[in-house]
Design brief:
With 343 residues, this protein is an alpha/beta fold. Helix content is 34%, strand content 17%. Strands 5-6-7-8-9-10 form a six-stranded parallel beta sheet. Strands 1-11-14 form a three-stranded antiparallel beta sheet. It is globular.
Length: 343
């Protein structure tokens, strides 16, 4: 098969950042995605309806002229979030709120330090039909970084899912077989997003032959056995897993430093990277569901109607992307050959 046409996909998890970076990140995503769930971990974070609407306007101003791209806004949960915040956000069609354990990832210092204290908020979300998006890692320093996702399931996610069975939960950017199997064993109100880096790479790609900072993300890459389990579940066509790139730009100098930032900027070739994965798995017939249908269905939104075509044609990911402020970003898969291209 040398060409494939699918319904236009959505990205159900990404980071645009803010300010000048929007002029790079928004067009890169709008080139192929119709909608995107926009992460709220700015400085300061997007904590209420007014923050979200102001950020949405800045994103729309950076979108290409004539684009029908739609950013879907998300609230950032803190220990001060109230049920009133949830109901006010729902009145403005904000579909989800994000749970970051404090210190779990970039700009998460203001996040939740006592998850159980948010149970009244989860109850309000369940009643209002707002989705809970979870970065599922424990952050206590004595836990091995490769075990943080599994322990989060045992200590927090399992109890939340049991306590609030009507609450729709997206276990975001899962990285382990434990997470995949937990999602499969859960109810229809539990689903997960999977990134291109966790399908394409494992921790050898981060550490063998030297530390590779542009493959460093959180949750961190895991063993190849976990990578293979993720590949198995997307190839199966299960509707509990869908596309979420976690595309996360950082300037080159902040990645290539003694304490580098976590995040892979995949927006420049996200759909092409996923297509390559499904092609490698001999599962191109499962791509459309993963990329275009299952996320919209889980969020209770209409599926897109526009079509997008990819052709089998090699191209090379740029080594760097120049920004107007003089900085540059090294994209995920920089300098490597991809076998699929948007027609």
């Amino acid at each position: 098969m040398n060409q494939i046409t699918i319904t236009q996909p959505d990205d159900w998890h990404l980071h645009f950042r803010d300010g000048e970076l929007l002029n790079e990140t928004v067009p890169a995503t709008a080139r192929c995605f119709r909608r995107a769930i926009v992460m709220p971990n700015l400085v300061p974070p997007v904590k209420n309806r007014s923050d979200a609407m102001a950020y949405k306007q800045r994103i729309l101003e950076a979108a290409p002229t004539g684009s029908n791209f739609e950013p879907l806004m998300v609230l950032y949960l803190t220990n001060e979030t109230t049920s009133d915040d949830i109901h006010e956000a729902c009145s403005q069609d904000i579909p989800a709120a994000k749970l970051y354990p404090a210190g779990a990832t970039t700009n998460s210092d203001a996040a939740v330090s006592g998850i159980e204290s948010l149970y009244p908020v989860f109850e309000a979300m369940s009643d209002a039909g707002m989705l809970l998006l979870i970065h599922g890692e424990v952050t206590n320093p004595e836990t091995d970084i490769f075990d943080r996702e599994k322990l989060f399931i045992d200590q927090h996610l399992g109890p939340i899912h049991q306590r609030f069975p009507d609450l729709k939960i997206v276990f975001e950017h899962i990285t382990t077989a434990d997470a995949a199997d937990f999602v499969l064993s859960g109810s229809d109100n539990l689903a997960a997003t999977i990134t291109p880096q966790h399908l394409l790479l494992n921790r050898n790609d981060l550490l063998v032959g030297g530390i590779r900072p542009h493959n460093y993300c959180l949750p961190v890459l895991k063993r190849n056995t976990h990578q293979q389990r993720l590949r198995d579940v997307v190839a199966s066509g299960s509707n509990k897993f869908f596309l979420g790139t976690d595309s996360a730009p950082h300037a080159k100098h902040t990645k290539e430093t003694a304490c580098g930032c976590a995040g892979c900027y995949s927006a420049w070739g996200a759909l092409e990277l996923y297509t390559q994965v499904f092609d490698d798995l001999d599962a191109l017939d499962k791509l459309e569901g993963f990329a275009s249908f299952y996320g919209a269905d889980f969020y209770g939104m209409a599926r897109n109607t526009h079509k997008i075509t990819l052709k089998r044609e090699t191209w090379t990911m740029p080594e760097e992307i120049a920004l107007t402020n003089g900085d540059s970003i090294v994209p995920f898969f920089a300098g490597q050959t991809l076998n699929w291209q948007i027609a």
